[in-house]
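Limitations
The structure tokens in this dataset are predictions for the assembled complex, not deposited experimental models. Users should treat interface geometry with appropriate caution, especially where small molecules or nucleic acid strands are included. An illustrative entry is reproduced here so readers can see what is and is not provided.
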Amino acid sequence: MKSDKRYGIAVLGCGTVGGGTAKILVEDNDFLKKRTNLPLFLKYIVDVKFDHAKALGLPENLYEKDFDKVLKDPEIGVVVELIGGTTLAKEFIIKALKAGKNVVTANKALLAHYGRELFAEARKNGVVIGFEASCGGGIPIIRALYDGLLANRNEALFGIVNGTCNYILTQMTQNGKTYAEALAEAQRDGLAEANPTLDVSGLDSAHKLVIMSSLAFGKYVSLQSTPVIGIDTLDLADVLAGQELGYTIKLIAMAKKYPDGRISTIVCPAFIDKKHPLAWVSGAFNAVSVYGHAVGHTMYYGRGAGASPTASAVTSDVISILSGAAEKFFNTYPIWLDNLPDADMLPYGLSEEKFYIRFNVLDKPGVLAKVTAIFAKHNISIASVVQKNEKKEEHSIPIVIITHYALEGDIADALKEISFLDELSGNTVCIRIMEEHKEKF
Amino acid sequence: MKSDKRYGIAVLGCGTVGGGTAKILVEDNDFLKKRTNLPLFLKYIVDVKFDHAKALGLPENLYEKDFDKVLKDPEIGVVVELIGGTTLAKEFIIKALKAGKNVVTANKALLAHYGRELFAEARKNGVVIGFEASCGGGIPIIRALYDGLLANRNEALFGIVNGTCNYILTQMTQNGKTYAEALAEAQRDGLAEANPTLDVSGLDSAHKLVIMSSLAFGKYVSLQSTPVIGIDTLDLADVLAGQELGYTIKLIAMAKKYPDGRISTIVCPAFIDKKHPLAWVSGAFNAVSVYGHAVGHTMYYGRGAGASPTASAVTSDVISILSGAAEKFFNTYPIWLDNLPDADMLPYGLSEEKFYIRFNVLDKPGVLAKVTAIFAKHNISIASVVQKNEKKEEHSIPIVIITHYALEGDIADALKEISFLDELSGNTVCIRIMEEHKEKF
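Predicted assembly:
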């Protein structure tokens, strides 16, 4: 252990995760010192108010409102940013980096927007940013990507990385709740925010996808190039219809690398085959499947949110930085957001998928013939058609079509053409079907 | 990058995994150099014959029979031991360590028997042993334990860590094959050795359990203190009876830490609730569930064997050593086999579990009363009794009893007493039931 190292830690923001992290660092301090052989200690909890810190019983001598004092303290080696958001958090992190402090953050929105800038700033100042807690809560998925799987050319990454959405979809799937009912329940149980937009819109998952897929493929995947479809317009009828066909609905953050090197990313609700391990992930749990050319399919499962699981990831970053290991990874491998070339993204429309499509049509002879003719014209081959008996509205019946692999652009063109049919009644629903990614050995 | 570092690699033993590793290091050399920014290169393949290396198309200029030459080569930084077994492999590893070479190994038997000695030797010589590939093949579970989960007091670890057994049990469960049929099939498909004893006896799983649980709990768990029950005596009838009751049979490597600090380990076939994620792991796949006090339940899933997945883990160790990160972990944390105190093991008989027990009894009135009286006498509370209609042999019917939590020793005593009953016909079967481990938050 070098004597010039600084083992003091400052936690910025004492909310749910900040409080959980401070609690572990204080209550388990003896255990952590013994386990790591590092004399680490929490020195400051920085916030504007300390109600939550007090409620958690955290010692008052740690409370500090003056961040500049923290920055000037030579004992502080790591600043843990758990403020959230992309304004104040960014400002504080840049100050900390410029002051020569290592930073640990759980802030996916910030990294997805300003990751390159922040990593470059860290490098300029000879320090490190740890961000395990930014994706998948307590699951050590970031480490798997930069360490355990590093020998792999990764081909695909599929994640269930938003616990709120997965809880809602599990309620719809397993208990037949509507989206509105399931959301209300999640809010009541503290599993969804009063304003759930960031989660249910898919944007939170997109933030995580951008971080994970950049690491996985060694190319910078931007948020702007990732289409995002949320779960907020999902109809229970489709969830149940998909289930009858052997699928489970999940909000999936998907990234694929095509043989020509192009990358496609999307966040969207997707039907997964019930035999795929991701289909088993229920409730507030998260999981990420990664497909490497050597290792094949590996999956990482655990709690994607919550004070204590996220604090576990944050603390492992703090330890890894103080041990000196994180610095080796960060300064040796050229795989971090600031030193990755831009990804060559597959333009939207060119990815090939299977689709579930549901129309409501007026119950007249010849409608199905018209619809299938339009599909044929757009080179879309149909795997199955199910015409449901139950009438949704007067004279209107739902038709569910499952396609073979088809170009997303062709599907969009066909659906546009179909939308002009007089027999169409109400909205058309189109949901991707995610097949098991083929391992190549 | 320091100029005094040595980036040459020697692979010892060109069998399945050795060949796979050499292939990755040769064929993906440009990719690996670019991805890691390390000028690593395979310099030697050391073996007594090179048929397999030739069949794989590995360059002949790498072939070397003289290990001493390798040891004297100052360019060699890492020796990768993939010979297997506990005699020659041990000798070669000790030679390599004494010559100041870092070692990477997939050899669980060797580490389970001589891990302390080998780690101490590495430390004495200022080098590192990487052993990710020793447990769970390509799954980065060892890293999860020494890095990603390090902030946790781990409470339990349950693993499916033998692909041969899991393949056989999946065949029995899903396709109704007998043990003998499933084994023959596994042998035909190259998923089981001609002599499958090491796998089906549970011993291979025990080797892995000893390594993983020592790391997880920070105490040295010895092979000698781990009871091992294999799958080779499993009756299809029990597999199917358990399935009807909502359970799936798996060979589980279990380790638990009790609140008083005592540890219990066992490898045995166990019925798992179908809702537990480990129940989903089928075929040759492996998975390990770890329960930490902060993170709760995390699970790691992937291919537990095979040339290419295991080579992925081996190569990640090589890279991590050459980057300097592995040395930081190895020399900072006191969690390695050579610096752990002995675990205080729970004596066999004192662990509390639920059990599935099947008797065959003569079809006479009063038998069940006698059996249940014996259970009651030994403080075993019964959750359910199922008397199957089908007669197994003339006048003999199977009775299945599911117990509540009971002391293993009480169960053993009761079964012994029952074995003296005149009405008993044939063997009694007793299988543990593994309930979901309760997360503590």
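Some entries come with short summary sentences. For this one: Residues 108-124 of chain A form the longest helix (17 residues).
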